Amino acid sequence: MASTAASITPVTIAVASGPSRAPVQLRDDGDFTIGRSAESLLSLDDAAVSRHHAKLSLRSGRLSITDLDSTHGVWVNGVRLEPGEEAPMHDRDLVGIGP
């Protein structure tokens, strides 16, 4: 009998510059924050990063990022998101947080 459970490939988030930190794997659907807050999935100790800077959303294996009205912005592959804007993410996309 075949399994009806969907096979979910984990999504790995790696910090490419700034303070070194271990990659984070997202395995389950949900929303995950990036910001200066210690409660964030990716907590970045930098004055240019808002406490709740951006939100990563994983739904059925699809990842997106939303600028949470941050002061210094979110960029995806060099394009700045508007405050509150959500953008789809793809393999090897680069995200900029802050100036």
Q: What does this entry look like structurally?
A:
The chain has 99 residues and is an all-beta fold. The chain has a single domain (28-97), classed as Tumour Suppressor Smad4, CATH 2.60.200. It is 0% helix and 38% strand. The chain has no helices and 10 strands. The strands form 3 sheets. It has a 5-stranded mixed beta sheet, with no helix packed on it. The protein is globular.
What is the fold's blueprint, element by element?
Layout lengths: L10 E3 L10 E3 L3 E6 L6 E2 L10 E6 L2 E6 L6 E3 L2 E2 L5 E4 L5 E3 L2
Parallel strand pairs: 3-4
Antiparallel strand pairs: 1-2, 3-5, 5-6, 6-9, 7-8, 7-10
Gyration radius, in Å: 14 Å
Low-confidence stretches: 1-5
Number of domains: 1
State the CATH class. Answer: Mainly Beta
Structural class, from helix and strand content? mainly beta
Output the keywords.
99 residues; disordered N terminus; Tumour Suppressor Smad4; 5-stranded mixed β-sheet; 3-stranded antiparallel β-sheet; mainly beta; single chain
